[in-house]
Amino acid sequence: MPVNFKQKNRLFFGAGGALIALFLLSFLFVGFPPSFLKKGSLFFIRPLLFVKQKTETAINMVVLPFKEKKFLVDENIFLRQKVAEIETKNDYYAAVAKENKELKIVFNQKKEDDDLLVASILARPGYGIYNSIVIDAGLNDGVRQGMRVTAFNEVLLGYISEASAETSIVKLVSYPKEETNVFIGGSMAAIAVGRGGENLEIELPEDVDVRVGDEVVTLGTDYLLLGIVENIEKSEVSPFQKIFLRLAVNAQEIRYVYLRK
Q: Which of 37, 156, 164, 189 gives 33 a disulfide partner, CB atoms 3.0 to 4.6 angstroms apart?
């Protein structure tokens, strides 16, 4: 009598189940499978292991590039953060070193001159005030209207225009139309007129020898540096030349100013 398909499946699964049962029983009672069970089990297990290995290989080939890319992105972000952290620390250390240097200058000059008043800058040009700076010294500290204000006690910045009990406003010499008597090139007296934005202008006869880079200083024996010539304009229709200069220091960078009581 011929065996149908369902009967074949029953026989196949029955034989397989019996083989697995014998395999497990051999572990329980003997501790290791007999040789004939080893061969039978390998017959069933080897294809499964092969399929498992191929599947894992295929999955790794697909997933690994994404894992590597994610690792590289994360590492890149981490390194960028470390670089930013190091740059921030370097900027901080540089700022501290600069401030310490300025404080040493202030201390030494203050020690040599008791009439010298040192003040910190609270506000600068472009931050709510026009061509002026605000300092943290006022009437209570001996500040008076018209007092001369300098940077490093060597560069003229301006004059006290207003003073309250604890703060004062310094009107810069570059204030529009503010006039300052100066020497240019070490020999020629002139008037420097403020143009705003820390810039000034001098007008002289065209035959006066003036060069870019010349220093401009205030009049008097106790003279101060005002600015440096940056540009010179001459015209064929005018007998005068226009000389443009800028304050010798950047008001945005200094932290302290000096006043003489």
A: 37
